[in-house]
Each structure stands twice: as C-alpha cells, then as structure tokens.
Amino acid sequence: MLEGIRQVGKAYRESTSRGFIFSLVNRPPEDRDGSKKHLLAMDFRIAEGCIELSFPELSDRVCEEYLWVGNCKGSIPQDRLTTDQLRYLFFDALPNLNSKLEDGELKETIAEVVGKFFTEAGVGSGKVRFLDIRKVRDFPSTIELPQAEDVKKFQREYIKLFFKLLKEHYNFSDKDFGLFSLLIEGKKPSELEEYVTYLERSMVEEQFKGSFRGTCYVCGREDQLTFDTTRLPDKFYITKLIIFSSDLAGKSKDAGFAKNFALCRECYKDLISGMRYLRNYLSASLARNTLYIIPGLFSNPVEKTLTTSWMDLSRRLVVSTFTPEGFLKFREEVEQELKDYQEFAKLIDYGYVDLLFYRSEQSSFKIKRLIREVPLRRVQEIREALEETRKLGAELLGESKDWLLSLNGMYYLLPVRSGAEVEHRKILDVYEHLFLGYPLDRNLLMHFFLTLAQVYYFGRPDYNVNPGNNSEWGLVRSILQTQLLLKFFEKLSLLKGGGKTVEANLEVLGEDIAQYVRRMGYSEEETALFLLGYLIGEIGARQLRGSDSAKKPILNKINFNGMSAKRILALSNEVFEKLDQYQIRKYNEKTFAVMKSLLDAHIKNWKLSEAENVYYILSGYAFCTYQMVTRNKRGEEEEEQ
C-alpha cells in the first residue's frame, strides 16, 4: 500500500510545476449546507497602519493562491498563514511563525506586523496577546473589549465581537467562511518565498535533522533516512509503538525502525503528496464508509507510468459502480471524453486499485479494511454485470430505475445492526469477495435477505435499512431486488445456480410466470415455493378488498425466521383452504396443481434450508404483488387517457 501511495504522490508531484509545497494544497472545505463559502483575507497595510479585508469565493485556485496546506497536527504550535480556524490567526500563528523563521526579510516584516497590529489585555491573573481588530479598516477605533476570567473564554468572546462587527460593516457572518488567511502588503502566502521555504523545511527537513544512512523501506535505495513520521497527514504509518519495530528495538539508527520503517527524503515527500492527493481527489464513500481509491499499474510492456489522468479515470470507473447515478454519469462522461477513455481502455488490463476503507477522527486514522490490487478489468466486469442485471429486471418486471443495482444500494439489501462494528464488517466482507472474485456463502445471503424481510414486515428500527411509510411496498420491491442481486452474483461467478432447473410445463401458468421462473434459473423445489408464494400473493390481495386494514392476515402464516419442509407442506394445505374461502381457487387451479406436484415430488428429499424456503415463498409473493400493482397502475393510466 505504501508503494501505491508513493507512486500516486510521485505522479502528482511530477504534474505540478510549482514545487513540492504546492502539491500539498487542500481542496476547499466541503459546503455541508450547500451554500458557497468564502475566504476571509486580512491584509496588513504596514505603512497605512490598517488591515484591509477581502472575501474571495473559495475555489481550487484560491486555495492554491493562499496556500491552504492544512493546520499543524496534534500538539505542534500553529504557524500557518491560512487556516480554517480564525482563532489561530488572531492569537498564536503569527508570533509562532516569527519565532520559527530563519533571519531574513520576512521575519523582520512579521516582527513589525506583530508589533504594530497586535495588542495585549489582562485576562485573569495574566495577559493575552491578540490581533487588534480596531485596526481593521471601517471598524470603529473605540471598541469595548470583552471581559473574561480565562483565556479560552476571552478568545471566544473576542471572535464573537469580530463577527458582530463584520456583519454590521460587511454583511458577512461566520457561516459564510471556510478559510481565513493573512496577507502582508498585498502579498498572498504563495507569493512569500521565505514562507514557502519555511513550510517545506518544517514539513520535511526538520524530520531529517537526525537522519542516518541506510536502505529505504519503500524504494529500497541507500540514502539518508528518517523514521520520524509525526508530520505525515494520515497516521497509519506510525513509529510510536515499539512493538512495530524490528526486534522490538524501537528508535535506533542501526536497528528497530531503522530496519523496517525508515524512509528516504524523496519517498517521504512522495508519501506526503500522495496522501494529500488521495484526500483531495481519490476519496469516496461506500456503504457509509469513507475510502481511498489508490490506483496502480501492474508491470506492463508499454512502459506506461502513473499519471493524474489515469488516476482520475480509475477512480471514476470504480465510483461508477457505487450508485445508479454514478453508473449513468460515467457513461455520459465517457462519451464526452472519448479520446481519453480510449487510451484508458487500451491499458485497462494493466491497471488496478487498492481500496482502503478507513475512519478518521481528529488526528487518529484507523484502517477498517484494505482490499488490495483489484484489477480494473474486474471493475469493468462488475459494471457489465450491473447493466446485464438491469436489462434482466426490465425484461421480467418492466422498465424501472429500481432494477439498476449498485454497490451502495447493495448495502440496503444486506441489513446490519446500526452501530455494530462487527456487523458492518460483514458488508466489507461481501465487497471484498465481489472485487476479488471470491465465492460467496449462499446461506449468509439468505440470512441477510430474511433479516431484510423482517425489517420491512415488523418495522425493526435497529438496522441500517429504513422501512419508510409504505413498508409493504418496500418489502415487495426489496425482495425482487435481492432476486436480481443473486443473478448479479451468479454472472460474476460468485454463486452457483440453484441446481437442476425446473422441467415442468410452466407455460400453462402464463408467459410472465414461466419466463420469470426460467430466467431466474429456479430448481424444482425453488419453483414450488415461488408458486406457493404467488398464491399467497393472490390471497393477500383478496383479503385487502373491502377491508379497512392494510394488513394481509395470510402473511402471518409465514414464519420469517425460517420454515421446515413439514411446515411448508402444512402451509400449502392452508393456502388451498384460503383459495376456497375467498372463492379464487378456480382462477388459480393450474398454479396450485403445478406447485403441489413439484412439492410432492421432492418433499421426502427436500434440499433447501429453512431460510431458503421462506425466501423463495416471499419471492413468489413479491412477484405476484408487484404484477398486480403495476397492472392496476397501468390500467388507471390508460383510463385517464
């Protein structure tokens, strides 16, 4: 994985012409409320003795101009001229930066700025130094400073006062800003060469102060090395714990981390750039998990190297399988960028992606799952299987967006308990099998599907699936989607079919039923259960007629935890009685006859599990109910025309 990230960083650095630090620029903070955010720029006009404000709208260009490379991590004193925390600029960043800069023009200028534009006030028994907002142009020169007993409370009140004045004079509030920055005499941070040099020194060179000669863990070259990883953006590569070091020797220049966790300067830079590029451009979300998509190239005969264009297309190809919208969007984008995609498609057999699922909270970084070296050809196969499954759904059930499955949609067909980490790993297991082509356990899927039915039928709130207001329709639609999901897995050779397919003359039941059963590849036992469920659907529809209740009592005959073959036989007899009771036997005699003949032929040597028994009954019920609802809907539309 480290080698993959290094390659990403190397390719990114080679694509940027402005130097290493500019490869670390972050993208604008996300707009959670959908509104456009601004950067609050405070320009120190030394000769005039005032601070001028400007409010450029955030964009990638603005982030680069103001050199938004993130705040200092952990307990490292803040020293950045651009930050997403205004209090850093008001109180500590500039004095901290001044103390760390080497002697030169910028250090002298910042010292002058701190002297002219910062002031002090008594707080509790001590003093606090802060930016004097009375120097802001258009702000009143007489402002009553807040009174507070401790520094933190003073900082909060002071910033609150600033935004109150900002609202009065410029009509901006704190919610309008995503970033804050300082300029000196009109020069933005990216235009201050000494500041750019300082950033690189603080991020890289300081980690090599205690460097030693050795072999780089990542590239294998002999060079000056460091094992100080405290400045790496993501903390999955750490040297804090001695148990990770060779021979438990810890931080030693000739043993411990020096042997298994030491990096040369170029690999160190590539890793930092790679991690930033992952966060900026190669991140995604799947099943409520965040992940990095790390592209790579297997050795290839065409001597191609990783490029930003290749990385972008690799990510878009993978993400296109996550949602139906992404699937369609990728197809449209491919048409628009045909030339680039043709080049990509030529080399697709040489490419792969690592999928790193993670959780990041403040400075901690926890890897939840790493799925290594997923061939891009495999991703393409998944796309093709999704499309084939959609066509199958349209053919058997009619055109609907519901039949275009997706990897994210799959998350809502495989329910897990909300908040249960162990349960959520099961979903990641399924994704891993899907991407790497490992066989899936049919019994596990049946367990998921019965749980799904329970969530909808009983309205269980403790799962990741929300039944919504119409749980009856949700049950029908989701069971039909699981049917297509099984076919999707079969197309990718993750599941075997259900055994010997049915040989009975199903055409007597009608073309729709016969085609559905045959295309789904049901075995004779599965067909019997499907037809039993279909009859339950007929009875349920009749029970709703003239009833004030939306419930179907016949569904209470199904045990959603599973049913034995003996119980299935008893249920078939009850269904027969209900057909008579509701006077619909004459319309369903053929269906019942075929169902009963198949049931009797296999009941003494029944092969399906109790979970499968219920699932295939529900499949027939869902098919019957879906047909009735869509036919009625079509009928109403034709009458209106």
Structure notes:
This is TIGR02556 family CRISPR-associated protein. The protein is of the alpha+beta class and 641 residues long. The chain is built from 21 helices and 15 strands. The protein has helices spanning 2-15, 60-65, 86-100, 105-117, 151-170, 193-203, 257-260, 265-281, 308-319, 324-336, 338-346, 376-397, 407-411, 421-436, 442-458, 471-491, 511-520, 524-544, 565-581, 585-602, 610-640; strands at 38-45, 50-54, 82-83, 118-123, 126-131, 177-184, 212-215, 222-226, 246-252, 255-256, 263-264, 283-286, 289-297, 351-361, 364-375. A hairpin with a 4-residue loop joins strand 1 (38-45) and strand 2 (50-54). Helix 3 packs across helix 4, helix 16 crosses helix 21 and helix 18 (524-544) packs antiparallel against helix 20. The chain starts with a helix and ends with a helix. The relative contact order is 0.07. The model has no long low-confidence stretch (mean pLDDT 89).
Low-confidence stretches: none
Note the beta-strand portion: 5-15%
Helix content: 40-55%
Question: Order of strands side by side in the largest beta sheet?
Answer: 2-1-6-3
- Overall average residue pLDDT: 89
Oligomeric state: single chain
Number of helices: 21
Instruction: Give the biggest beta sheet.
Output: 4 strands, mixed
The coarse silhouette is elongated
N→C terminal distance: 61 Å
Sheet/helix structural class? alpha+beta
| Radius of gyration based on Cα positions | 32 Å
- The count of DSSP E runs of length 2 or more, i.e. the number of strands, is 15
